[in-house]
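Entry 14. Structure prediction run on the chain below.
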Amino acid sequence: MNKRAFCFSAFALSAFGVLSALAQQPAIDQSRQNAIVRAIGKAAPGVVSVNVIQVEAERVLDPFSRDFWDLFNARPKVLLREKQLNSVGSGFFIDNAGHIVTNYHVVEDADKVASVTLADGRVLDVELVGADKRTDIALLRAKGANLPSIALGDSNNLLIGEWAIAIGNPFGVLIEDPHPTVSVGVVSANHRRISPSIGEGERLYQDMIQTDAAINPGNSGGPLVNANGEAIGVNTMIFSPSGGSVGLGFAIPINRVRRVAQEIIQFGHRRDPWAGFKVEDVAGLHSDFRAQLGVAVDTGCVVVNLLTTSPAYQAGLRPGDVILGINGQRVDTSVDLDFAFWNLFVGDPVTLDIDRGGQRSQIHFRIEELTQ
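Output returned:
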């Protein structure tokens, strides 16, 4: 091959390579627009930073009296003044009316919920519509035009291993940027029950969604999103020895969040569910007392106090009955019942599996509202 022919061949090969690369570029660009990217594009505009203000009193020395008192070697005058602390959590729009869901613990100690910052940079004033401490959900409302809401998914239809995207504003006070941060993982487990000690016995952390998507301080209240861009949970907590994410994050399922939000919008608060009886753990009762009550089982909860006006009494429940299950879930201790009832809403049906002197039966009634 002469020199001219060689140069032409080299040029042809080079040109072919360039043309091939150009031909492949659209395919590469298309592959970058995967389901995760599309889901983030749908959901991220609806995520907000929740800006709260907390005022603390601090002791300071009076600068006008310090030098004078120093002359006499005496203690200078101490003044009290208010110190304003700003903190940031996350939240997201759930409808076009401006309602924003976040965690109750994001606003719990705030003296004022000042505003929310949208991903497009807008800062809107908000009001606290209502909150439910037991489910750790708070509802805010912002006023404005073109408010981008996130579609709500179905947390009863989750698959272990499906994509889970945590969107929020971790360390928001340190990163002055309205765009939310995204971390991607999977649904690691579902229906996780957290020990009552985590919520100090006052918060319902059951049926939680577990994910290994990184959740960090400031992510609380932001959405956990599926591959369709739908919110399937509210990012709430992590388990970590260091305080940072180690792949053990938990979100409140969106189906519960949806019902709490609907209650707050309609009634201004979450109505307290009421069944009208109290129980004691069978395992904790003295054998003589168990025999006196006619308890014939070793686990479950025995009814020790029951109001005759309660829905449970009207349905046939009686003192001495041992509750073994509720709505298909096994009951071993009173904690199991507490978790179950806290997850119910006024009007929900209840089926109790009971043992009465060795005879098994079921009691059916509906939850009523606890009123004064």
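The first strand starts at residue 47 and ends at 61.
Filed with the rest of this week's runs.
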